[in-house]
Design brief:
Layout: E1 11-22, E2 28-50, E3 53-63, H1 66-73, E4 78-81, E5 86-93, E6 101-108
Antiparallel strand pairs: 1-2, 1-4, 2-3, 3-6, 4-5, 5-6
Length: about 110
């Protein structure tokens, strides 16, 4: 179980959601739209993706936000943008189901 006190939320992060747009000719493209900037606690954990590939899992703890949960379960892709990296939200949980915090399980986005 992950418990994070709000006093440990030292990093400013921006949450983004993927938006699909259609141009005048019917072409589609994906862009990223910022929807909130807030403080977060960021932890790194080693994770094994497969026997040949290891990666780093980032646990980003933010205050509970119903809009973030709704976007996630509606299938919207989300990113967490920090000062030096962009993280893809893979999954999220609410510790102890109290709706005080959200823990976002993320992986680094590579170009």
């Amino acid at each position: 179980m992950i418990l994070t006190s709000s006093g440990r939320r030292r990093d400013w992060v921006t949450l983004e959601e993927e938006i699909e747009t259609t141009d005048a000719l019917g072409g589609r493209s994906q862009t990223w739209s910022e929807y909130v900037t807030l403080r977060a606690a960021i932890e790194t954990k080693p994770a094994v993706v497969s026997e040949s590939q290891a990666t780093v899992l980032y646990l980003v703890t933010i205050p509970y936000r119903a809009d973030t949960v709704t976007k996630h379960f509606a299938g919207s892709q989300q990113h967490v943008v920090t000062a030096d990296k962009t993280l893809k939200v893979l999954e999220m949980v609410t510790p102890e189901e109290r709706k005080r915090e959200l823990v976002l399980y993320c992986a680094r986005v590579t170009a």
